[in-house]
Batch of 2 targets.
Target 1
Amino acid sequence: MRYFFVLSVFLKSFYSNAQSITNDFGAKSKGVGNSNTAIADEWSIFNNAGGMSALEHVHVFFGYDRYHRLEGFDKVAAGIIHPMKFGNIGIALFRFGDELFSESTISMAYGNKIGFVRLGAKVNYYQLRIDEFGTAGAMFFDLGGIVELVPDLSFGAFISNFSSAKLSNVERSELPVVMKIGLSYTPVRKLSVNLDVYKDVRFMPMIKAGIEYIIAEKLYLRTGVNTNPFQNFFGIGISLDPFNIDYAVSNHDFLGLSHQAGISFTYYKKGEK
Amino acid sequence: MKNSIARIGLFFASLHQTVGQHEGVESLDFERVIENILPQQEFDLDYNDLYDRLFTLYTNPLDLNSAKRGDFQSLFFLSEDQINGIVEYRKTFGRFLSVYELQSIDGFDREALKQLSPFITVRSDLKESLKSGLTDPDIHHLFLRYQTVLENKKGYTSPDTLSSGKLTSRYVGDPNRLYSRYLFSKTGMYSFGFTIEKDPGEQLVWDPGTSRYGMDYYSFHAMVEQIGILNKAVIGDFSLDFGQGLIFGSGFNFGKGIESVTTVRRNNLGLVPYRSVFEDRNFSGVAISTTCKALDLCVFASRVRRDAIIRKDTVELTNPFFTAIQTTGLHRTTSEIAAKNKVVDRSIGGNINYKVVNGKLELGLNGIFTSYSVPQKPSMRKYNQFDFRGSRNYAASVYFNYYLRGAHIFSEAGMCQSKGKAVSTGIIASLSPQVQASFHYRNYQRNFHSFYGAAFGENTKIANEHGFYWGVKIFPIRKMTVTSYIDLFQFPWLKYGVDKPSRGRDFMLSSDYQFNSRLNMRVRFRSKTKEENISEKMLSLVRIVPKKTNRLLFNLNFELNEKYSIQTRVQQSRMHVDGNVRMGFLIAQDVNFQMPALSISARFSLFDAESYDTRQFVYERDLLYVYSVPSFYNQGSRFYFLTKLSIFKNIEFWFKISQTKYFDQNQIGSGLEEIDGNTKTNLNVQVRLKL
């Protein structure tokens, strides 16, 4: 048990590459290699709060991610976005780990379209819990935006933890500061191609590329790649209004396969559909 | 006749455009203008002088009717065809009535005019007397600037006591930088100005014994133009640009940057008042220039004090000498103060420039004689044995410029007292409307000594270099610009840190795509290889190996509307030396907001560079007149927030706060500059009073 605990913390700290504070979530996003910065959908509450303002209805969504061969690396997330007169607000919950080591984040987000720009801001409370060591927490802030540069070409930028918050009672424990930017190009309605650059200040910069293709009405195929570390991604999505169901799988050299599934529900008011 | 009718039509057609567009031009912020034309550099080049020159032109645009070829050349983004177009147009049609007449010249489309318009104007040709001119200056302003670092550096802490009982070195002054600059000028008539400065760590003290008189640095100039037979007469600080910069060069030009074609040429700006605070380039004294028909003549006499540590012969304690002139201009510690103004540099010289064949050929002659009050004797090393030694040097050069249709051929050849020779020669040509190209050859012998030159090359000194440069600028399709250069160079003698003759290569390829007037994307690649020493720890031997640095940059610029613009940069560098690889990376996001009375710029960036060699350079907006390209390595984040406010009609106010935070360091800097902690915060404030 002790051995497993040490191994688990070791693996997490070396390979999980800031999975803890998530800036990428959703099976829809994972299918395109998390090249999500310029994408506006309900998962934007995790990926780039700027995209939230694209939603016109209430959305409720849930996702679960786990490695095929590894225990203790599970990720669970859920959220709700509610359009208001003054913009869209949302709440998101995220948890990584197991009973020995876990990280949880609760976030409040606000997104609005101002002029040409979709802007979003997020306030997060993060808590780290290690069995037999106790807990530590910190508040941190995110900012993001998406703008259409020319028709069919969108650009997004997102900064997480720009104030570089520290854990309340632990020395030298800055939470990761992350910046990501991305382009999304939709030459025809059926096809979108994304290219992102992702930088966690502690790790090598990553390039994330992805393609989504609508192969048949309401059926989406996705694939993507990442560098540093190299990973492949594949995904599929089905739209069964008011539900969207997505699944994605990725392959990591050391950690092996990981699967993610997500479901999103759109609440239409009477007569709106 | 047909032409003149067309011209009148064009003039009226452009009238309402003039009104509409000129407002736009005036509301354009200088920072925005400069970002459009100055390369978004990722190299360690000092563009301060150039920035200064562009700002002078911006506040005081060139008159299309009276500007000379050299003036247009100094707007480095103009092609040879465009300059020829203006000159020919003036010859054929006489005076320009409006800037918008340029549109009828080949090579000036809307974009070109937009780029050029902040720097040109059309003035009336009425001659004003000096007396009435004095009441109506073009520029009359005063800048006051304050800069400081909020964290305490080691130099400002109390000194430690060494075991010998001596105290360790500390800065004598406070950590604030104070700067003020005044200018009162009218183009073509007069210019009067001063600059005063105190660097961080310097003391405000009156102590003639150590050449300290209140502020640390003073510069002043007074210039009158067109008085009697004199073209210009300057008293005070000035700089000279003649030929290709072998003898006289002020640094108003690029190194190898993105402007791949015109960068090889030095512009004959001639005599210019000196307004910068760099304390090693200027002349100080009297200079006059005069024009007699096709002959231009300029002569000067200068006396400047330079910083150097005076040493004496160890045996007899006589024969004072110095090893090197210190050019930092910093006088913060007792040893720095002891070096201040210890060498007197007296120079006299001049230039003759003669135009023949309708101005298509220019011939010139430069000469300078310099004497130091104390001889320079660098300690003998293998690499520096051909450097200047002694207290007197003279140098002379001949040059020509020849304009042949779309081509400009130029050359300068010089020689100094030691018989060291130097030649800089090149051609810039507009081959077709889509293609501009240039070629440059340089050969600077190892014993060529020029104290005031600034010629094209890889070394900072004009010596020990031999190289070939090719540059092109292509417009393959509308909206797209491709620029590229390759520079092959050799250093025929040893250099500091390179124990054998070495060679290198510098290659750049850059592409700009202008989607529309609001969106621009740029991708640039640069690869540079140079040789340098590597010490073998085991054998106490030194090997010389190539060091290759590749840099890649992506830049996106988008104007959302009149008020908002965003900019994104991603840049990466990778250095290969002796089987080792080092990486560097930077990502930055800017948001800019602009209104007539208020503008705000903010940036957040992350950087991560494994070594000093892969450090990331990135241009930053700053106070007006401050050209800032900080570089970063290690892991960290940086933000800045800059605002400009026009409170009253005549007062502008700038405020900038910036902070760099390191995630893998517990201290920043070294020596007396060391900060104990992982953040560094700069605070800059500036006021400009328009008088």
Note: Residues 323 and 378 of chain B are 4 Å apart (CA to CA).
Target 2
Amino acid sequence: MATSFELNGISVTLDVDPEMPLLWAIREKAGLVGTKYGCGIAQCGACTVHVDGVASRSCSIPVSAVAGSKVTTIEGLSNTISQAVQSSWQKLNVVQCGYCQSGQIMSAVALLTDVPKPTDADIDAAMSGNICRCATYHRIREAIHDAAKSI
Amino acid sequence: MNQISKTSRRDILKSAAAGLVIGFVWTPNRSAFAAPEPAAKILAPNAFVRVAPDNTVTVMIKHLEMGQGVYTGLTAIVAEELDADWNQMRAEHAPADTALYKNLLFGMQGTGGSTAIANSWMQLRNAGAMARAMLVAAAAKEWKVPETEITVKKGVISHAASQRSASFGIFAARAALLPVPTDVKLKDPKDFNLIGTELPRLDNAGKINGTAVYAIDIVRPNMVYASIAHPPRFGGVVKSFDPAPAMKIKGVIKVVQISSGVAVVADSFWTAKRARDGLNIEWDDSKAEKRGTAELLAEYKALAQKPGASAKKSGDVAAVKAAKTVTAEFDFPYLAHAPMEPMDAVVEIRDGAAEAWYGCQFQTIDQAAIARVAGLKPEQVTINTTFAGGSFGRRANAASDYVVETAEIAKAMPPNTPVKLIWTREDDTRGGKYRPAYFHNMKAGIDEKGDIVSWTHTVVGQSIAAGTPFAPKADAIDTMSVEGASNLPYAIPNLDVNLHTTKVGVPVLWLRSVGSTHTAYATEVFFDMVAKAAGKDPYAARLALLDQHPRHKAVLELAAQKAGWGTDLGPNKARGIAVAEAFSSYVAYVAEVSRDKNGGVKVDRVVCAVDCGTVINPDVVRAQMEGGFGFGYGLVLKSAITLKEGKVEQGNFDSYDVLRMSDMPKIEVHIVPSTEKPTGVGEPGVPPAGPAVANAIFALTGKAPTSLPILKKGLSV
């Protein structure tokens, strides 16, 4: 059964099992592999995308649940907040292995969209669902503050 | 792993030259990610540097970029000697080719032991200088001027007198036709203008916009996806299974038994996993490990009461008549590496060839392993190394476990069928290759003056090296079990470090900083317990015993000074300090902790000092210390793999707990200026992290955490 939704501003129809997690539909059927698999049970945040603007764990949402929704992945980031976040990530050399960073950035963009000047506590609350095994947390926190200043 | 052998400049030159002797040719199919221009137009004086007519300079990176920054650091070394502009530099993983790309400290191609910079330093300086000399020679020939009148700066070749200048790209093709110089002059380090500066990471862009390629992202024509059911106990084997129910699921292509379990192959990962989850397999556990953590701990504790094989002995601990004796026991759980990218690989077997794509950390070993499965010679196996989503040692294993699995499945498929194997998080957590569990029994004697006069340290645990090509010779001590303990830096006159190596059927492996993951914790926390018993300040007590180890002393002093050691923090706060050497780099941390309103303990601030010799990139050094602290602290705070009747009790991040944003303190890193040869930073930030926090908790609460992790289920510090 096919599911139709908007993916990074483009209407797509994916002919997949409606129970297939959005993550795998995006990666293997739509071919956008910037969104990563880390745990499969919404515990690590590597698969974070925006569904109608809300940071969501795509590994734990069946593709059928986003029918008619707007889904944004790391490949589809384009607004001012996104650009500020990515620019601060670059400036502060946040990444190490990089595998979790698509998810980190998606969560950070969602945070700054809701809370333009987050405190450390806001950041802890919004970002603690995104695991980074390289422990780049210190720089992620700094980069979010840096991006907030530039927006 | 941590012995850095002395490699002379001549050896390195010989090694660099060896690449030329066997005639290195750049061919497009050597790497899936590059389509180099025809070789003749590219200046490729050695296996490491390619200067292209488009003015890009590409450095072939023989080490796996898994976050530690080798793309940036190794490229900077070449750029320095080449006098290139940083913006023209590119990095690309080198193919598997032991002759060209072996780790000079291992003798095989592979990444580990924080050796990437240390072993490549002179090799890449020469490689860059060679390319520079040839560009200069080509310009001199074209401009008909002496080479000595030519200067090179930021990627521009100039002749001042005739006011001529050109980019590298202009002369790449012409330089490629010139003879390769056999001996080149290297820069005086005082003339370095890239090394020691904060060059931006070369892998930033792709990792920020989602285009960086990991094994899980590889797509090949006709590719299929695989998921494997492993035995629930280590050492278990398949007794029987019924493939029929799985085959009924739409999209399932094949169900096949392989050496490590049963694999399901399908047209998508999700389908393969779903079918795998539904398999009904009967396992034969007759030879499996069935002990649990409680039984193993009891056995280890009993063993630790008697001395084991001697790892280090000086003076005579038995003859010491101490005024006061301090004892402690420490237990450390098994630990999973849990890199964010679970184990995965893509392998395709063709007629007379095989090709693989993944974050390969041991090229020489993996290449031979794939060749064995495919019935090929190692040189018939091409490995395209991708970025790895972390490893922390997991991808460097002598068994090439997940790589062999992928190759076995590919072998079971028709030729020319690329197979992508993806382990689930649960597969990864339960898949073995853990940092072994250890038990430490420690005893120290203090004399009337308060001096530590004896130190006895018994370590109990499995050998990581046993059964691998890295195994110690018969009767030799397993150095990886005691590194960090047998080389205790403190001047204590009577020292006895000994080891019981146990045999347990749980597969074990090195984890970021190897033996020092537990020895640094035991020695540094016990040191504070002894210092307290002696009525001494732990920082001052350390300094007093480190006259023979000035680099330990220097990092301690720098960290203590920057942290304001000795100044008043106010109520309900305390500091802890710890130092360790690992892989010839030295790191000290001061951690500040406070009691939070719930009665728990929170780490507020961490100050780090590091000495890693000559610094290639201070920002990467800082990043590795920040991350190394977080990794080491997270392990002792939260992480444990436990067994019940031989089965791993954890599966995903809901049960195998790791450091999260809310746990991460503010951290500042200070670097000791040095002109010593460069040493690694990937691992050395880990060992002193846990003990610095534990010592702060000890100072705050009077109770040192000796059973890890600190936060056990239902317990708070």
Note: Chain A touches chain B through 56 residues (CB under 8 Å).
